[in-house]
Amino acid sequence: MALRVQKYGGTSVADIKRINNVADRVRKAYDQGDEVVVVLSAMSGVTDSLIALAEQATKTPDKRELDVLLATGEQTTAALLAMILKSRGYKAKSFLGFQAGIHTDKTSGKARIMNIDCQNIQQALEDGHIAVVAGFQGTDKDGAITTLGRGGSDTSAVAIASSLKADVCEIFTDVDGVYTTDPRICNSAKKINRISYEEMLEMAILGARVLQTRSVEFAKKYNVPVHVRSSFSEEEGTMVVNESSDMESVIVSGITCDMNEARITLKRVPDQPGVSAKIFTPLAEAEISVDMIIQNTRSGGETDLTFTVTKDDFERAKEISYKVAKELGAGEVLTAKEIAKVSVIGLGMKSHSGVASTMFQALASENINIRLISTSEIRISCVILAKYAELAVRTLHTAFGLDQEK
Ligand code: ADP
Ligand code: ASP
Ligand code: MG
Questions:
Q1: Ligand 1: does its nearest atom lie under 6 Å from the Cβ of 209?
Q2: Per the domain annotation, does 201 fall within a domain?
Q3: Does the pLDDT of residue 248 top 70, yes or no?
Q4: pLDDT at position 287 over 90
Q5: How many domains does the chain have?
């Protein structure tokens, strides 16, 4: 007997027929003697519609109330699955975030799970129930409903799996595993059978939305075995596991593309100590995380400073930048939203050189201009114009020998 946490994403619960399909899978695991905790997303498109509805109500929806609204998407699917299972004669019980004991900090819209008290779920399992949990939500210490950021049901599932010490956390989605790149952009993408937490984490951070970044952090920290697989087939998917020695022989294992960043440049900033702090402190105080930063050397005691933020934070970051530029007596502030960040990722980069030059040559061969570059031990990222994003992904996929043999 195993304890399985199964998470089903939006497409997998898009309508009643698909929720019935989920019920079939859950039932199968339960019938073979496993204990099953199911974590559900909202039906696909529902979270977007709820955000649009809130924006119709007011231009700047209050964050606390927006979370109350968004949490209803997952409340709906959890109730529907539990009632379908019950109608088939199974013992099942739905749990909202607070009932599942998911305690978060107070950051509405992108709350972090602080701890989980799984007592209610455990009791339900002991009583022979299938526990059905609404993903993406928790409560803060004052009892307010919070949500975990887009794609947050992945994190709910991994966190619950870790807390229950489950044998596996299965992430059922609309692709049959983690691929060398987004299979919807590149049809020669290959399925990866095993990927290390570290590589998966970089891929998630850099835009492969198949797993939310926080879920991979959790899995890595608590060693949760994660199996990413399709809810529409029986095929084995991708196991996300600890690094093993054979993994290092692969130099580049994946390519990602992130369209969710925007660029801000402050021209002619005084080139003196303390200036960067004056720019980035107010951004940090506004809880805006800055990704890439580039400072050019210029003559005449001035420099240009460029950085990127997520598109969600762009308007606020722009406002702060205008204000700071004025205070510093800097030049104009230039902004660009139509950018993409393409990245190559691989554990083998730790011990191999030449990856950067292959990347730059491949982009140059398609006449794609690189605007910003950043690197870490196991990845290289380049910011380019958004219109070249898909071409860049396919070109890099071929350049690093990742194309599937046809
Ligand atoms: P769910 O609703 O099940 O959570 P998501 O849309 O969040 O599903 O994530 C699955 C999607 O992630 C796929 O449809 C695919 O387009 C995208 N994706 C991006 N990069 C990758 C990758 N490297 N491997 C697999 N899927 C990827
Ligand atoms: N429903 C939320 C979203 O669309 C959370 C999730 O699906 O994981 O982002
Ligand atoms: Mg998702």
A1: yes
A2: no
A3: no
A4: no
A5: 2
| Atom 15, ligand 1: residue with shortest CA distance | 182
Query: What gap in Å lies between CA 211 and CA 242, rounded to an integer?
Result: 16
Is 108 near ligand 1, meaning CB less than 6 Å away?
Answer: no
**What is the average per-residue pLDDT within 65-87?**
98
Q: What's the pTM value of the predicted model, to 2 decimals? A: 0.93
Which residue out of 38, 47, 48 has the highest number of ligand 2 atoms within 8 Å of its CB and is therefore the one to mutate?
47
Determine if ligand 2 sits within 6 Å of the CB of residue 42. yes
Bridge partners for 376 per DSSP: 379
175 lines ligand 1 (CB under 6 A): yes
Domain closes at, from 174, 198, 227: 174
Find out whether the beta carbon of 172 lies less than 6 Å from any atom of ligand 2: no
Residue 45 near ligand 1, beta carbon < 6 Å: no
Coil vs helix vs strand at 289: coil
Cα R_g (the chain), whole angstroms: 23
Ligand 1 center–CA 18 separation, angstroms: 18
Clarify whether residues 165 and 281 are in a common domain: no
Closest ligand 1 atom, residue 8 Cα = 3
For residue 304, give its domain range. Answer: 255-399
Residue 233 CA: distances (Å) to CA of 77, 227, 333: 21, 14, 51
> Is residue 193 in some structural domain?
no
Say how many Å lie between the CA of residue 215 and the centre of ligand 2. 13
Identify whether the C-beta of residue 188 lies closer than 8 Å to the C-beta of residue 397: yes
Q: Considering the chain, what percentage of its residues have pLDDT values greater than 70?
A: 99
In a domain, 150, yes or no: yes
Give me the pLDDT at residue 78, please: 98
123, 155, 174: which is the final residue of a domain?
174
pLDDT digits (tens, 9 = 90+) for 127-171: 999 999 999 999 999 999 999 999 999 999 999 999 999 999 999
pLDDT band at residue 60 under the 50/70/90 scheme: confident
